[in-house]
Amino acid sequence: MADIEVLDRNDPLAPLRALFELPQGKVYLDGNSLGPLPTAARSRVEAVVQQQWGRDLIASWNSHDWIGLPVATGEKIAPLLGAAPGQVVCCDSISVNLFKLLATALQLRPGRPVILSQQDNFPTDLYMTQGMAALLGEKRCVARAVPADALMDAMDDQVAVLMLTQVNFRDGSLHDIEAITRAAHERGILVLWDLAHSAGVLPLELDSWQVDMAVGCGYKFLNGGPGAPAFIYLAARHQDRVSQPLCGWLGHAEPFAFEPGYRPAQGVASFLSGTPGIIGMAALNAALDVFDGVDMKQLRAKSLALTELFMTGVRAEPACADCVVLTPEEDRRRGSQVSLAHPQAWGIARALIEAGVVVDFRAPDVVRFGFAPLYNSYRDVAEAVAQLARILAADEHLQPRFSARTRVT
Ligand SMILES: *Cc1c(COP(=O)(O)O)cnc(C)c1O
């Protein structure tokens, strides 16, 4: 393996690790599932609970601008997406936001009922589409999911919107947003990108790629905390032509006019529905400060170096011979995780966690190693490879204590 110490010493992003509260003695490789706690988020939550909620009470909606937090947090996320102001709002979960945007897309393409997606997309994306189809009936909405290599052929004149996830959650493969968006637009199809495993780790240019709509996750690479709210991006060019079906009072032009009839707020703020969870959103808002001054291209370069070092290390270890690397080797095809398939993947994941290397398992046979360039070091990679090889060489993963399944994997 390359000289790890030199790599860490020369890493311009290494100081950012100090902005996180990472437990001693652990190698945390699950930031693609739950980002660790930024110190800034801890202090903000304390302030929100003690001063804002505890002391200032309801006045805080105005005095601490709680009411403006969804838009303000959206504007803080926007630069990470390559989005000009006025197009991103923070709210709800990805699942709920998909529902709002899918309904919007169908409205924008009347006469085209199909929502096209990829068979191995993240299940909630497919489930929400199935729910939309059940609600609207087959004349108005058809859920179609095909294998990745059949997407181009499936883009016919019945398709209203192509809904894809840039980085596949299971194997870490990466779609070319710009090329696929262009191909869809040539066929009159809108695109809705799920950026769950992209926002905060990949350089994104949604405006210049002409993306129509996107959603993304607050609790993965944005480090906003468990259940942190998600976000919606809706390109400015569509905003005055659409309405969304979950039109709750906070998406109204004047919520405190308490009118009986709905009038949407201007712009993407009309995609808000109900009252936001302020404590969780404040944590995400503070966590985003970690990205101040960070060059996303530099972040991506380190992410690629970490994942490549890991794949090379695994391939070089005779003990890892039965691990199949599912993640593409080509840089432009790889997100920020490496997935290994192995028949005993569950036991391997449990043994790694016991050894202090925090990874996760995805059914049926995948161990995921998520690399977050904000806080993972090259030493973390070396330790992960070493522990994996040690466990496999000793057959430690076969020990009975690693066989019981947990509810969350
Ligand atoms: C994590 C993830 C989600 C999560 O959806 P929520 O509704 O926010 O829980 C959705 N899509 C993808 C691709 C994900 O990886």
TrEMBL record:
The keyword Isomerase does not apply. InterPro entries: Kynureninase, PyrdxlP-dep_Trfase, PyrdxlP-dep_Trfase_major, PyrdxlP-dep_Trfase_small. GO terms for molecular function: kynureninase activity; pyridoxal phosphate binding. Pathway: Amino-acid degradation; L-kynurenine degradation; L-alanine and anthranilate from L-kynurenine: step 1/1; Cofactor biosynthesis; NAD(+) biosynthesis; quinolinate from L-kynurenine: step 2/3. Belongs to the kynureninase family. Keywords: Hydrolase, Pyridine nucleotide biosynthesis, Pyridoxal phosphate. Pyridoxal 5'-phosphate binds at I94, S95, F122, P123, T124, D125, T165, D194, H197, Y219, W249, T275. GO terms for cellular component: cytoplasm. Homodimer. The gene is kynU. It catalyses: L-kynurenine + H2O = anthranilate + L-alanine + H(+); 3-hydroxy-L-kynurenine + H2O = 3-hydroxyanthranilate + L-alanine + H(+). The modification N6-(pyridoxal phosphate)lysine is found at K220. Its EC number is 3.7.1.3. It comes from Kineobactrum salinum. Its cofactor is pyridoxal 5'-phosphate. One of its GO terms (biological process) is quinolinate biosynthetic process. Pfam families: KYNU_C (PF22580). This is Kynureninase. Catalyzes the cleavage of L-kynurenine (L-Kyn) and L-3-hydroxykynurenine (L-3OHKyn) into anthranilic acid (AA) and 3-hydroxyanthranilic acid (3-OHAA), respectively.
